[in-house]
Amino acid sequence: MTLEHCYCGGIIQKYDKSVLPQVKPGKIERVAAKIIAKWLKKGNMARAMRDILPYSGLSYYERNTVATIVHNVVRYKKLYDYLMEKKGIPNTPYNYVKLSKNKVSWDMEIPYHIQISASEKLAEILKDNPEFERIINREPQTTLCTNFIKITRENLIENLKLEGFEAEPYLPESAVLTVPEAKYSVAVKSGLAHVQDASSQMAAKLTGELGDAILDYCAGNGGKTLAMASIFRNKKVIYAYDINSKKLETLKHRSQIYGADIKIMDKREAMKYDVVLVDAPCSGVGAAARNPEAKYQEDFEKYADNQIAILEEARKYVKKSGFLVYVVCSFTPQETSGVIEKFLSENSEYTLNTEIFSNISGIVKTDSGAFITLGDILFISVLKKS
Ligand SMILES: C[S@@+](CC[C@H](N)C(=O)[O-])C[C@H]1O[C@@H](n2cnc3c(N)ncnc32)[C@H](O)[C@@H]1O
């Protein structure tokens, strides 16, 4: 068996010290090993990178190479640990780096959850779904959401190319597939686009199509709020709410740069909306390509109670005949069908609407909603109030 998603290089056929590439570490490898050392001690891959990368003296391109190495190590840690233990290789940070730079194949029986480097619980969910396993273990794409308030997608792509970044149209019609370094482009800094996964853009588009007055109830820093303002060119009445007021401050700042007309919801005003979006906190296993740490979780039940509680709060703001849209970046039954079944059993005025998911590229309809698989794996469910 061979891992196809590794970052480069030859094949490790036999497992002993001599098969690890005997390359003198360069600066990139040294920085990657330093980040891995910190992650092994303290967890939190994103923080370990944030604490070290900006002060590493590396260029944006080199930093992206480091980030790729670190992601690969975290993505396959369980498999690497297994192979290193079997072959008596010490699991030092630098040996992880070396392993990540090679395609790995093996000639022994390895349990499935170790092959895919995930918790046993997650492996159980993935074992009949090779497509989801492929998506969460692949190199993540970088996509931008075009800000149609300021620019067309064609002109955005032209601007990115003038800045030296490869860019091409993707799905949905706001999405531009580009290179990781484009995150630092003038186009992004000046609010012509924001970095956003294609599946999230699709979720924003589907939500916005359901009505004119929209409440983004778990708006966070405003990823989907900005996407809705942009895709519908400021023509919708969009309100944002989040339990975390700091995030709403960031959202306000971003919407100014973006020229997006987004209002902050005031719970004291008894307003109701055509559509209420609940993009709930979740395990994030659907975004494991970008944050591979998510694959090692065992307990998915713990998210479901909170997800239902937030739906219960948010439903109060849905107008008669309006829609409650539930989104999570996950595919575990606990956080997807389980939540919808429970909510519907306790709220008889809501019915499931899966018709809107027919014949859309990158969407797989299910009994309780749909999975969007253009980038991350997102679950979306649309509930109509009578
Ligand atoms: C998945 S994130 C939202 C991401 C955001 N929609 C985006 O696209 O960038 C979930 C958000 O729910 C918020 N949240 C958690 N509990 C909440 C609650 N009870 N009411 C409202 N927001 C809540 C969190 O603060 C977090 O920002």
Description:
By secondary structure, the protein is α/β, with parallel strands linked by helices. The chain folds into 3 domains: about 10-115, no CATH class; about 145-195, Alpha-Beta Plaits; about 200-385, Vaccinia Virus protein VP39 (Rossmann fold, 3-Layer(aba) Sandwich), CATH 3.40.50.150. Helix content is about 40%, strand content about 15%. It is built from 15 helices and 15 strands. It has helices at about 25-40, 45-50, 60-75, 75-85, 95-100, 110-115, 120-125, 130-135, 155-160, 185-190, 200-210, 225-230, 245-260, 300-315, 335-345, and strands at about 10, 105, 140-145, 165-170, 175-180, 195, 215, 235-240, 260-265, 275-280, 320-330, 350, 365, 370, 380-385. Strands 7, 8, 9, 10, 11, 12, 13, 14 and 15 form a 9-stranded mixed beta sheet that branches. The relative contact order is 0.11. The structure holds S-adenosylmethionine (SAM). S-adenosylmethionine binds next to helix 12 and helix 14. S-adenosylmethionine (SAM) binds near residues 219, 224, 244, 247 and 281.
Write the SSE topology:
Elements: E1 11-12, H1 27-42, H2 45-52, H3 60-75, H4 77-87, H5 93-100, E2 103-104, H6 112-115, H7 120-126, H8 130-136, E3 142-146, H9 153-162, E4 167-169, E5 175-178, H10 186-189, E6 193-195, H11 198-208, E7 213-216, H12 223-231, E8 237-240, H13 245-258, E9 262-264, E10 273-279, H14 301-314, E11 318-328, H15 337-346, E12 350-352, E13 363-365, E14 370-372, E15 378-385
Helix pairs in contact: 1-2, 1-3, 1-5, 3-5, 11-12, 14-15
The structure holds S-adenosylmethionine (SAM).
S-adenosylmethionine (SAM) is lined by residues 200, 217-221, 223-224, 242-244, 247, 279, 281, 310, 313.
